[in-house]
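Dear all,

This email documents one entry for the complex benchmark we are building for the journal club exercise. For each entry we list the sequence lines for every component of the assembly. Then comes the predicted three-dimensional structure of the complex as a token string, followed by one or two observations. Please use this as the template for your own entries, and keep the labels exactly as they appear.
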Amino acid sequence: MTGVGDTRQPLLAVQHLTMRFGGLLAVDDLSFSAYPREITAIIGPNGAGKTTVFNCLTGFYRPTAGRLAMHVNGEIFLLERIDGFKIARRAGVARTFQNIRLFAGMTVLENLIVAQHNMLMSASVFSIAGLFGLPRYRSAERAAVERARYWLDKVGLTERTEWAAGTLPYGAQRRLEIARALCTGPALLCLDEPAAGLNRRESGELNQLLLSVRAEHGIAILLIEHDMSVVMGISDRIIVLDYGRKIADATPAEVRVDPAVVRAYLGEDGVETSSRTMVTDPGVVRG
Amino acid sequence: MKAASGLAVTKPAYTTLYWETLLKDAVLAALVAVLLALPLVGLQTYDIGGGALGIRTHFDWVVMAAAMVFGGRLAWHFRPRRRRQGEIGGGPVFARLAARGNRWALPITLAGIAFAIALPFLPFSSRYLIDLGTTVLIYVMLGWGLNVVVGLAGLLDLGYVAFYAVGAYTFALLARDLGLTFWQALPFSGVVAAGFGVILGFPVLRLRGDYLAIVTLGFGEIIRIVLVNWSPATGGPNGISDIPRPSFLGLPFARSAPEGATTFAQFFGLEFSPTQRVVFIYFVILALALVTNLFTLRLRKLPIGRAWEALREDEVACRALGINPTNVKLSAFGIGAMLGGFAGCFFATRQGFISPESFTFIESATILAIVVLGGMGSQIGVVLAAILLVTLPEFGRAFAEFRMLLFGAAMVAIMVWRPRGLLAHREPSLRLTPRPRRARLR
């Protein structure tokens, strides 16, 4: 499908990304690209630096070196230079977190409305138009609610809009967090282990959701995942990290039989390459 | 093991052991009570003439305190335990009130407002009662202001009284040096206090929880100490007196008007009475408090209010969603401070005299207690807590020196009974309406 010598315009081009914490080299000279309308997975054993890459992309860390370029509507945004909170709005990068970070005390609907803060804030003209309930603000709020309603339907939470987000079951919280990220209207959706803690049926539903997000909205997805049924099932490309280095960058079929990947996952003596063994990483399940 | 007390029915196998534990626990509590009571009530100083102090001992009181704690602690173990597991404690009345908050909030609010308006004209009303009502309303307004910072944005502020002081001094100085009246100075008080709120906000942007509390505590003290020491401007510990009283659309409340002016009483052809001013001042703070309430209720349903709550819940997620945490925090500090400034301006005109004495840490603590006791983020809860906290010490006057003890005990009782505040029900800021075409009421 997509080889190393790809000539298409990437959506996200990461070049020579390096992240050093004191003496620890978490990400070592990593280069990869994510293309529009594609699902790119980043996999690797625990501690390989996957989440660090996400934190660099979304402005939580400032990389030690490297260039992270988002190409949106003909504009280039250098993520390493933009203030963290501006990345979602300007460069269109939205993310979810490995340990779910919802606004637990607020309702499901409110979580999705908060995600549209910047749009609503400018419609409310520093809260003044909103304070007096001017039509301009009211129609913006209606539009925000409609957008929230659309994604609630999509992730199957319409029945629970008034639940406090923290009281939802685990799987529903994961879906709500994805819906919240989608409400920001992203060009690239970064999902940090969206299938962690989901059962087989739920991760099947997740696959369907991600595929439809890509097909219907043209949103590219960058995915960190340990659940190989998700990774192998929907990814267009897989990037494998080990100790912060890229050891493979290929299609799922190629990665599955890549000797370097097998070694990283199973040690030197590894023989079995089926997707089942890849899942049984004892550190995968997190609270 | 063969004891047949009422207890043995519930804990048959462990009766002896159980009693032992109970007694040990109660004795321990009584010991703590003795330690505390010895210096507090056991020793009493009195004047022996010539400016010297003698010490009187009151060990009988210490014994009484220990006995009461011992008995109380034992009784505590036999309290009825009807709570289901996982349920957060609470009396049935308030729990029901909170659960049905939606249906009853409006009638209760309207009844409350109607009562507040009618209060000065009720037959049992007196000057003392109206004064008390004014004090309650000041604290209600301060509570609603602090609720923005603590209840909504989740930023623990222990120095809120600083903004109250800034508002009061702004008006006092504007009146003394520029001759501004209350109504002219009111906006300035709010703006200057908001400015101070933002100034406080900048250094504490990266702090949360305990650390933030310490810095805000320090800020409150800095303001007070500046007011004490900057004598040329603030009058130092002597404060500022002769602050002008508010007028009714330019009509002063006075026995006789200066030349060329009419007093309120003359204009309406009434007999002059000092009560008129007291009642008017009461209505001014009632109006200010209601405007504050409408303002904060409205803000809560706007993006800014939801961003405050989101910030309280998770700052990292806010950043990931493109919300600028700096703006959100500074706006919470600024708006909270502005409301405190308005209250301060009113306080100055009501008292006619202000000094740093009025803006000590205990005021900050009281306002914070009102917010916490009321239930974080609950508007009606703040009113209930303010009434309780202001009137309780008044009722307690009959108990003389035990007044504050009673007050503290009541606060402990409320927090044991309702750990999340009197009314801890959170109303969603917006709902998914089944019929999107129909205009929403709120």
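Observations: Chain B touches chain A through 30 residues (CB under 8 Å). The longest helix of chain B spans residues 15-42.
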